[in-house]
């Protein structure tokens, strides 16, 4: 089997690898790198109409919105008759660059057939583990083949982990990420596949890869193939990530900053307030949140769109 080009990853990048498409954490307020082309939709969502003056009548309802930020973000918001948010659900559907990674020993790397892995690349983590990408994956019964992206591919500029491009073998989808990012309808469909666990790494004919290939999901230690692994952020147990920046605490802070409000703040009106600990906390017109996630504005903006749909503004 051909040798693979190895890249040394820093500890910080290793955390990103383990987290898949998890939101980054930082005190920063720097703008996020825009995804290629259609990803500007996420920015447009943050410019939703202000809702300081609410429509008349019963405003109870439920709204859902999707956007793309390293993964498929889905936010559902429920409101009461006065337009106050009573419930919110936020989750992320993991894309293939998270779940199509396989972990191998050096011996397995030498012995795995060429048609099982994307040739030309492997990743050596800070802990010495070797990881590569499955050459074939199956999503909703459709087989995709992975190839290396060109150096000037905009997806690589957006996220260095987007090393592999997956194209459907039937020719209908040239680049899964382009298709995924093209519309909310596509995001909704993909998210449902994540819920249904309707995807897995496979051989060329679509047969789930046997363990003899060394192909094991990276998403969670000990989990096997189709039907036994989570493709949702909410049900993926990443203890290392929690130790890294406490995702659960930040996610709860996002909920706390939205539930019980009428979301009168637009995402472009968000500011930050420095806390006693020196960290910058996201701040809405309703007060200082406990969130420090650099992607908070994306989460909030998507929730804002869902909110406007709930009360009938969209």
Topology:
Elements: E1 6-8, H1 11-19, H2 40-45, E2 61-68, E3 72-79, E4 85-93, H3 96-99, E5 101-104, H4 106-111, E6 122-124, E7 130-133, E8 136-139, E9 142-148, H5 154-158, E10 164-168, H6 176-180, H7 184-196, E11 199-202, H8 239-245, H9 247-258, E12 271-274, E13 280-284, E14 287-288, H10 296-310
Parallel strand pairs: 1-6
Antiparallel strand pairs: 2-3, 3-4, 5-7, 6-7, 8-9, 8-11, 9-10, 12-13, 13-14
Descriptive report:
This protein has 314 residues and is of the alpha+beta class. The protein has 2 domains: 6-21 and 94-232, no CATH class; 37-64 and 81-92 and 241-310, no CATH class. It is built from 10 helices and 14 strands. The chain has helices spanning 11-19, 40-45, 96-99, 106-111, 154-158, 176-180, 184-196, 239-245, 247-258, 296-310, and strands at 6-8, 61-68, 72-79, 85-93, 101-104, 122-124, 130-133, 136-139, 142-148, 164-168, 199-202, 271-274, 280-284, 287-288. The strands form 4 sheets. The protein has a 4-stranded mixed beta sheet. It has a 4-stranded antiparallel beta sheet with strand order 10-9-8-11. Strand 8 (136-139) and strand 9 form a beta hairpin. The N and C termini lie far apart (55 Å).
């Amino acid at each position: 089997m051909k040798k693979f080009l190895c890249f040394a990853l820093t500890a910080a990048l290793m955390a990103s690898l383990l987290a898949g498409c998890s939101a980054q954490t930082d005190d920063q307020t720097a703008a996020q790198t825009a995804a290629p082309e259609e990803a500007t939709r996420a920015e447009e969502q943050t410019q939703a109409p202000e809702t300081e003056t609410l429509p008349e009548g019963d405003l109870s309802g439920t709204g859902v919105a999707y956007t793309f930020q390293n993964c498929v973000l889905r936010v559902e918001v429920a409101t009461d008759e006065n337009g106050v948010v009573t419930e919110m659900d936020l989750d992320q559907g993991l894309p293939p660059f998270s779940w199509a990674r396989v972990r191998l020993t050096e011996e397995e790397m030498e012995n795995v057939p060429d048609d099982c892995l994307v040739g030309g690349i492997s990743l050596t983590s800070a802990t010495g583990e070797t990881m590569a990408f499955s050459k074939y994956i199956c999503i909703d019964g459709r087989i995709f083949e992975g190839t290396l992206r060109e150096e000037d591919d905009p997806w690589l500029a957006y996220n260095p982990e987007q090393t592999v491009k997956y194209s459907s073998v039937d020719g209908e989808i040239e680049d899964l990420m382009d298709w995924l990012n093209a519309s909310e309808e596509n995001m909704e469909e993909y998210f449902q596949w994540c819920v249904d666990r309707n995807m897995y790494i496979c051989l060329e004919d679509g047969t789930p890869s046997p363990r003899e290939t060394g192909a094991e999901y990276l998403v969670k230690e000990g989990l096997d193939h189709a039907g036994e692994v989570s493709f949702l952020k909410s049900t993926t147990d990443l203890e290392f990530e929690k130790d890294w920046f406490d995702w659960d605490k930040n996610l709860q802070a996002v909920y706390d900053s939205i539930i019980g409000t009428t979301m009168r703040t637009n995402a472009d009106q968000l500011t930050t307030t420095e806390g006693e600990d020196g960290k910058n906390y996201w701040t809405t017109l309703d007060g200082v949140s406990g969130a420090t996630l650099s992607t908070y504005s994306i989460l909030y903006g998507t929730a804002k769109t869902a909110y406007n749909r709930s009360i009938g503004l969209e």
